[in-house]
Amino acid sequence: xxxxxxxxxxxxxxxxxxxxxxxxxxxxxxxxxxxxxxxxxxxxxxxxxxxxxxxxxxxxxxxxxxxxxxxxxxxxxxxxxxxxxxxxxxxxxxxxxxxxxxxxxxxxxxxxxxxxxxxxxxxxxxxxxxxxxxxxxxxxxxxxxxxxxxxxxxxxxxxxxxxxxxxxxxxxxxxxxxxxxxxxxxxxxxxxxxxxxxxxxxxxxxxxxxxxxxxxxxxxxxxxxxxxxxxxxxxxxxxxxxxxxxxxxxxxxxxxxxxxxxxxxxxxxxxxxxxxxxxxxxxxxxxxxxxxxxxxxxxxxxxxxxxxxxxxxxxxxxxxxxxxxxxxxxxxxxxxxxxxxxxxxxxxxxxxxxxxxxxxxxxxxxxxxxxxxxxxxxxxxxxxxxxxxxxxxxxxxxxxxxxxxxx
Length: 407
Fold this sequence. Notes:
Blueprint: H1 2-6, H2 8-13, H3 16-47, H4 50-75, H5 80-104, H6 109-133, H7 143-169, H8 173-192, H9 212-219, H10 221-237, H11 243-250, H12 255-278, H13 285-305, H14 309-337, H15 343-395, H16 397-400
Helix pairs in contact: 3-4, 3-5, 3-7, 3-8, 4-6, 4-15, 5-6, 5-8, 6-15, 7-12, 7-14, 9-15, 10-13, 10-14, 10-15, 11-12, 12-14, 13-14, 13-15
């Protein structure tokens, strides 16, 4: 135990299946981030239509939303590392088709939208499988650190992927698609090497069990409180969709400044991931989770009121750090409170909540900005997140009073 405490990273690296899966996830996420940058620019080059840019996101979101619960059901019945591997191979195939079509001059609006549907389906199966896999690869006492390390890798990919994709796109879309294919094939190969004791479960044996994850979360107030807390806080408090307005009209900066503003939350989240890897939360977990959401709201409020570029950067970094506390705590609670035969379906519910908060949050930001202005929208959103934290403290007393990660 003392060795685990003093050398958490060494202890995690010693878990070879987890280390392989970590590298596989980082490679896959980095490729996915690069792919999204390239597909967006490529579509705009082809059509010069903002509406078509929105359709790319919509064509990914709708199939993902429809397929996530069945994907969770499948993750509870089959080898999760193999499901993840198939998802990586499917996305590598999409990148390869885009590479070939670009070189041959066959790339078109309809092809990109069709491939966007395939990406959405692949991600629907990827998310529950990868979330439910981590607890099988590390001891329980290392799970919080493992989730923090996984989050750290994700933030590195989220920061580096778009920047590298944008840089390589200057040499042509085909270059980006080729590298994405290579990274996704690497992720596919590494995930095939992830082994754990797998015994097919007798649970989730029929399609009537597809909605068991929803019932499971609904009946456990700690999980319902933690999951819905993140949904409503991000739904109300997210400001990412309005960053171009703030960059140009309020902070008077250019595309580089916009890129820095977009990266700031990920930098804060990465920093907090490193902190939580070394010093995981031990006591007063519920109260700290709710406090982190309140800090997220206050920092969002500060960003909305700021007219200084560097203060705005700081506020966004704080939102990322606070959100990371929420993410790591929520995922750890969920994994520890859920029996293994249910983890895929519960992870699917979590994926739906995350997707809804991000996608609907952008829609909510745009609608409220049209009515209140960008500053008014962000300020009201920040206040809304603080209000959510206060209400959840009262409505979900079991969550607020939770002392340790393991109840």
